[in-house]
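A quick aside before the break. I want you to see a complete sequence-to-structure record at least once, exactly as it would be stored in a machine-readable document. Don't worry about memorizing anything.
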Amino acid sequence: MKETKRNISFALVLYNQDKKSEKLLSDLFKYSDKYNAAIDTIESIYIKIIFGLFDDNEKSPAMQRKEFINNIPLGIKKKCSIVHGDCRCYIGNIGAEQRWNYTADLPDFKYKLKTLLNLQPGEIIKI
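That is the input. The structure line, written in tokens, reads:
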């Protein structure tokens, strides 16, 4: 492992797959760009968004996340469930020689994911 521990913020997003998923994802990705967010993971109906993955913004990761959540467009909000928060975690190339992934290794991920899976579309909570 080649990583360092750093303060970051995150938003875990769950969305319903349907005929309009491609537009929803496009809108979410464009919106994320406004807040210097890194789309870290896209897996089926799950997306991990990280604020502070790269140190190239004058605002703190927590401020970026708060602005992202507070201004999320209704078209995205009503179709997604979101768990968000701040943490200190390992950032960097995580994996092994055969496969590295530059990512944020969120602590208590099982709890975060379980909480996300229990939300209804439109629900957003900070943990």
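Two observations worth writing down. The first helix runs from residue 21 to 34. Strands lie at 2-15, 38-43, 46-51, 80-96, 99-105, 124-126. We'll return to this after the break.
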